[in-house]
Amino acid sequence: LSQATRLASSSALLQVLFRVVTFGLNAFTLRYLSRELIGVVNVRLTLLYSTVVFLAREAFRRACLSGSTKRNWTKTINLLWLTVPLGVFWYIFLGLVWLHLLEVPDPSVVPHYQAGVVAFGLSAIIELLGEPFWVLAQAHLFVRLKVIAESLSVVSKCILTVILVVLYPQWGLYIFSLAQLLYVSVLVMCYVIYFVMFLGSPEATKKSFPIARMTALLPNLVEDETFVNWKEARLTWSFFKQSFLKQILTEGERYVMTFLNVLNFGDQGVYDIVNNLGSLVARFIFLPIEESFYVFFAKVLERGKNVKDQKQDDIAMAANVLELLLKLVLLIGLTITVFGYAYSQLALDIYGGSMLSGGTGPDLLRCYSLYVLFLAINGVTECFTFALMCKEEVDRYNFVMLALSFTFLCISYFLTHWHGSIGFILANCFNMGIRIAHSIHYIYDYFKESTYRPLTGLLPSPFLVLVYIVSGVITGFSEVFFCCDKGWMARLMHISMGALCFAATIITMFCTETKLIHFVRSQFLSRYMKKGT
């Protein structure tokens, strides 16, 4: 538990760095480049990169991180290397679609589009070359390696982008293509260099590390045995079918924008900027928790076994952790939803000026604040569900995801025509709600034959709910009277009102949610307090 918590905390710091850098980089590039160029990079090309990477590796990651670290790692590594040819297939197929079937931007506004498609697709293949190293490090909880590798890659990308934007803004997509290639190259090289130094060292021997030399991290034939572990391979296939659908749900609005042309490239740029701002807090907290505690639940409980067949001590620990995680993300999501409504316009005005705060930007960010609440709950419920599902249950869930994917695309299309880019957020809320309902049903059925009720974590204190309502009303009236065209003194008054309401909310949490506060202090904050002493 402590290792999983440590991994979540460190991953959260990484997400903070990545999102803050992206946040600052967007604010900087807005002053040098067009909205259309930012829209093509952040929506069209990034979608190509993320689709290739996700479809090629997500299923392998989930399958190979399940179970104990005591396994035949040679077969697992052989399986992981299959991500590279799979990635090449998706790169060629999707690259042709991006170049020949989709609308090509005006070269006078967004130059060098073809080079951008090639570079972003190639960057996905380079990143897949480091997949065996990443899984091995993640399975053995090499927290510091992940922090250093991703930090260096993000910082390198940021520095190169800033230099090229200032010196050669006319290069267009060449700037972001070179920065993307540098990012993945630094990321992979950090993992390779670390394992070159680590393998065979006294530290590796002390930890009884299962890999002794670098050649063991390449594909190897096992005498008189199969090339891969077929149990892992079948599980990978099940997760692959699911990951294909999950990618549509996760990046659905970008697929609708890309393939159906419901927004022009300029509007796509504004939507992506607001989307990054809205997800700044959500993703750097919730995603690391989901990834790290998926590993925790998968190791503590055995996949496919019911609650009676598990070790009861493990069930008690898993139920307690799940309840507290649900309470933690629920309160974070409620806080963002309540205070995000009244401070969306002010945040956009400070960040991007009237270009963002004068149109649909504030309403878009307000809706995103509500969407954050759905993201919070879905992340934890799904990480527990996916860690426990057997192959047959995963296959059945694939049919649910298939229906949900089709429904999502239809709803996104119609809501976008009805309410512009806000329709994307509303459609995402609907999808997350359905996924949450499925996961809650699974968790309820799993624990119904035990005395544990972890879903009570979704029930906050009534008094805390009252404080949230009062805070929402006060900050809402404060926005009407003080924000955002009445000068900086009025803005400061609005910020002060929000700070007082936020302080009251936090104090109420400390008084009413003592069990949760103890969990956060003992697990997430303990190692930082120890460092301080």
From TrEMBL:
Pathway: Protein modification; protein glycosylation
Membrane topology value: Multi-pass membrane protein
InterPro entries listed in its UniProt record: RFT1
Domain of life according to the entry: Eukaryota
A family per Pfam: Rft-1
Protein's UniProt keywords contain Endoplasmic reticulum: yes
One GO CC term, this protein: endoplasmic reticulum membrane
Function: Intramembrane glycolipid transporter that operates in the biosynthetic pathway of dolichol-linked oligosaccharides, the glycan precursors employed in protein asparagine (N)-glycosylation. The sequential addition of sugars to dolichol pyrophosphate produces dolichol-linked oligosaccharides containing fourteen sugars, including two GlcNAcs, nine mannoses and three glucoses. Once assembled, the oligosaccharide is transferred from the lipid to nascent proteins by oligosaccharyltransferases.
Similarity remark: Belongs to the RFT1 family.
Protein name according to UniProt: Protein RFT1 homolog
